[in-house]
């Protein structure tokens, strides 16, 4: 069974669940929010951009960056975690930008996306763009390279996500918005010495065996078999590996959200398994997707100034 994408022509976030209409209250449990306890349209109705990433600290830092870049009033260091009543996810708002952590792996981001999309629906948000920013293992590319995903693929290099529903396997498309991909690539060209490319992203179900690592607690294959598999992935167009992109692309596509995945490579998996770069180098790498998306958002809002960019990334 294959599900197809759905779009709401009026720009509203499309929720494909007829049961929601008959519910007296919708409790977004993992966000500690709800339709009766919070005025979601007032709190979130102006949101146009949602950025999600694994780490709570990283998403707080991104919200603080956007607070500064958008010239908002007050001190961005004082941004409050909207989900402070729960320890599952963190959420910060900077003007029209919502920044949310999603944890690691398909189950964690899937739960977050269900409640996020319902939140955007209840808040009557329009024309929302959602972007996952994060880290990944590169495949045949230099560490520090930013990969903009065109298609998310599974461990068999298929552009699909298999969702088990009751006792059925439902296959969902994992294609991402092509125009958004090109727009992000064009934004990257504004930054000096900022290696960026478009490629397939492979999503796995774990960090060790699922990604062909030799350094986990369990390993039943040789280095030769590992390299054979990774080279096969590279030949299929895969340029980086992470653990969330397929379900992210599938759910966003079904709900009519224009979505993108932008991840930096921390290492080249064809050369090793462990991340050994110095801490300060890794911090700079992790900031690259954030700066790219900040430029994208400012351009969309008509606030972009290239002279400011030269101060951040001098030639």
From TrEMBL:
GO terms for cellular component: cytosol. Its EC number is 2.4.2.3. SUPFAM superfamilies: Purine and uridine phosphorylases. Pathway: Pyrimidine metabolism; UMP biosynthesis via salvage pathway; uracil from uridine (phosphorylase route): step 1/1. It catalyses: 2'-deoxyuridine + phosphate = 2-deoxy-alpha-D-ribose 1-phosphate + uracil; uridine + phosphate = alpha-D-ribose 1-phosphate + uracil. Keywords: Glycosyltransferase, Transferase. It comes from the Eukaryota. InterPro entries: Nucleoside_phosphorylase_CS (IPR018016), Nucleoside_phosphorylase_d (IPR000845), Nucleoside_phosphorylase_sf (IPR035994), Uridine_phosphorylase_euk (IPR010059). GO terms for biological process: nucleotide catabolic process; uridine catabolic process. Pfam families: PNP_UDP_1 (PF01048). Residues 48-297 form the Nucleoside phosphorylase domain. Substrate binds at residues 211, 213. One of its GO terms (molecular function) is uridine phosphorylase activity. Homodimer. PANTHER family: URIDINE PHOSPHORYLASE (PTHR43691), URIDINE PHOSPHORYLASE 2 (PTHR43691:SF8). Belongs to the PNP/UDP phosphorylase family. This is Uridine phosphorylase. It comes from Mauremys mutica (yellowpond turtle).
């Amino acid at each position: 069974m294959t599900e197809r994408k759905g779009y709401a022509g009026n720009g509203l976030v499309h929720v494909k669940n007829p049961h929601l209409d008959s519910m007296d209250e919708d409790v977004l449990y993992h966000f500690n929010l709800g339709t009766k306890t919070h005025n979601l349209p007032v709190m979130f109705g102006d949101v146009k951009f949602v950025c999600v990433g694994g780490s709570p600290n990283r998403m707080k830092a991104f919200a603080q960056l956007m607070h500064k870049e958008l010239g908002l009033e007050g001190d961005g260091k004082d941004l409050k975690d909207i989900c402070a009543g729960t320890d599952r996810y963190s959420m910060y708002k900077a003007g029209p930008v919502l920044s949310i952590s999603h944890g690691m792996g398909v189950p964690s981001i899937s739960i977050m996306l269900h409640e996020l999309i319902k939140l955007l629906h209840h808040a009557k948000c329009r024309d929302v763009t959602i972007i996952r920013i994060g880290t990944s293992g590169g495949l045949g590319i230099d560490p520090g390279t930013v990969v903009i995903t065109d298609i998310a693929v599974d461990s068999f290099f298929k552009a699909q996500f298999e969702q088990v529903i009751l006792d059925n396997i439902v296959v969902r498309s994992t294609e991402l918005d092509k125009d958004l991909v090109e727009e992000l690539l064009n934004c990257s060209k504004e930054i000096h010495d900022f290696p960026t490319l478009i490629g397939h992203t492979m999503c796995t179900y774990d960090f060790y065996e699922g990604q062909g690592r030799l350094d986990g607690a369990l390993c039943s294959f040789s280095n030769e078999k590992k390299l054979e598999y990774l080279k096969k992935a590279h030949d299929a167009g895969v340029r980086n590996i992470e653990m969330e992109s397929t379900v992210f692309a599938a759910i966003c596509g079904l709900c009519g959200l224009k979505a993108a995945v932008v991840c930096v490579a921390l290492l080249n998996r064809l050369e090793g398994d462990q991340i050994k770069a110095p801490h300060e180098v890794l911090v700079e790498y992790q900031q690259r997707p954030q700066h790219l998306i900040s430029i994208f958002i400012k351009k969309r809002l008509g606030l972009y100034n290239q002279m400011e960019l030269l101060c951040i990334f001098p030639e």
